[in-house]
Amino acid sequence: MASQQTAEPRAGSALRRAVDGQAGEWFGLVVRIALALVWGWAGLAKISDPAEAAQAVRAYEILPESLVKPVGYGLPFLELALALLLLIGLGVRIDAVISAVLLLTFIAGISSAWARGISIDCGCFGGGGAVDSSKTEYLQEILRDCGFLLLAAWLIFRPRTKFSADAWLAA
Amino acid sequence: MSEKNREGKRTARERMQQERAAEEARAKRNKKMIIIGVVVAVIAVATAVGVVVQNQRSKPETPVSAPAGAIGDKNLVIPAGPANAPSVLTVYEDPRCPACGSFERQFSPTVDQLEDQGKVYLNYHIVSFIDRSLGGKGSKYGANALACAQDAGKFRDYHDVLYKNQPDETADSFGSTTTLINLAKQVPGLVTPTFEACVKDNKYGGWVSAVQQDFDKSSFKSTPTILLNGTPVYPKKGEEQISPENLVKWVDEANQGKPLGTTGAASASPAPTSTAAETNTPPSP
């Protein structure tokens, strides 16, 4: 999935210069902020109603009841912490790795719900829980997460971005 | 000699350069490890803090206060009709749920009749999950207002009024306490300062949340969920489609040979003993 980025340096030296040089760092800044906004939005949407967040987790019917609340309560704060770290650009590569792991987990969870034939809303940006079988949007939810995964992948392979705490610390 | 000297100087310089390079590489690696440590720590602390904070913010599953006469082990259920009726009809409804609205419009007269004849004891679970998917507060405020009406001993009448005046699912008019109080004027004697304060202050918000959390943990996923003596009868009982006639038939079949319940006033929900805005501790069932 992320091999596009790794293949790019072979695709002509002009492109490589662009990706590795200033332009790449500017683009990286855009990607970093975009991913930060995704996590910020996802986290804030899950915070207002703890019972709703817990129910969104419970609806997947994967975790035991004892873990439903800790995950439902903790996940939005994990997402907000990632948003904050990406926003200031501290440890961009490790942030992106954690983001990718989280997104892969979400994709696996949604796929599993789809495969088991249960009808739920992913609860990705608030909401969640059982929905009418005509209202499931598994494919859209998975594709959306794959899009976010591409952002994370870019930052794993090109973690150097403009205006980042990383750059400031390295100077 | 001078050759050797130069040679020696160069190797010394090279060694120094190598050492300095190694030193720099080590410093760089350490910096990286520190940053990774900080990132992991920030995420771990944020998540742990989040669990604690949300635990404190979440409303308890056992409500602190419940409307008068609520039954069940956590006082989450609003009863209507004679408690000694031979059959129990359990109803899970959300004030905003359109399918509940059409169920009520079709079945309300039949259900009221069964209740008044002493054939069924109604157990209402007023859930509030539509606010989650569509946003708004209509389910929660509507459920709270129904709890306030239960306090005033007029649950059934207000329940019927709300479903008769139910807005579109996407319109959140029950999210306005003014609307809820205006609709209550259709029930004679319901609107009192106590009732108004109860609706406006969302007095039973914690109870409403507890009722919903109980529904979350149940195996039921949608509303209306209608159970006759524990058996689902909506939209079908086995192979038979529900209809007002069939519902009466099923109840009569279940009641065969059993004495009917005591019939009294149309609204058998107990009136509260005091109108003071204090915490009601309903009697245990």
What's the mean pLDDT score of chain B?
91
Which class of the largest domain in chain B in CATH terms?
Alpha Beta
Give the C-alpha Rg of chain A: 18 Å
SSE pattern of chain B, N- to C-terminal: HEEHEHHHHHHEEEEH
Put simply, the count of helices of chain B is 9
CATH fold name of the largest domain in chain B, please?
Glutaredoxin
Beta fraction of chain B: 5-15%
Subcellular location (chain A): Membrane
Transmembrane segments (chain A): 26-44, 71-90, 97-115
Pfam families (chain A): MauE
Main location (chain A): membrane
Can you walk through the features of this model?
The complex is a heterodimer of chains A (171) and B (285). In chain A, helix 2 packs across helix 3 (22-47) and helix 6 (92-116) runs antiparallel to helix 7. Chain A has one domain (16-164). Chain A is elongated. Helix content of chain A is 72%, strand content 2%. Chain A has helices at 3-7, 13-20, 22-47, 50-58, 65-88, 92-116, 138-157, 165-170, and strands at residues 120-121, 129-130. By secondary structure, chain A is mostly helical. In chain B, the strands form 2 sheets. Chain B has a 5-stranded mixed sheet with strand order 1-3-2-4-5, sandwiched between helices. A two-stranded antiparallel sheet of chain B has the order 6-7. In chain B, helix 4 packs across helix 8 (205-217) and helix 6 packs antiparallel against helix 7. Chain B folds into 2 domains: 17-58; 73-255, Glutaredoxin (3-Layer(aba) Sandwich). Chain B: Belongs to the thioredoxin family. DsbA subfamily. Chain B: Residues 1-24, 251-285 are annotated as: Disordered. Chain B: One of its GO terms (molecular function) is isomerase activity. Chain B: InterPro entries: Thioredoxin-like_fold, Thioredoxin-like_sf.
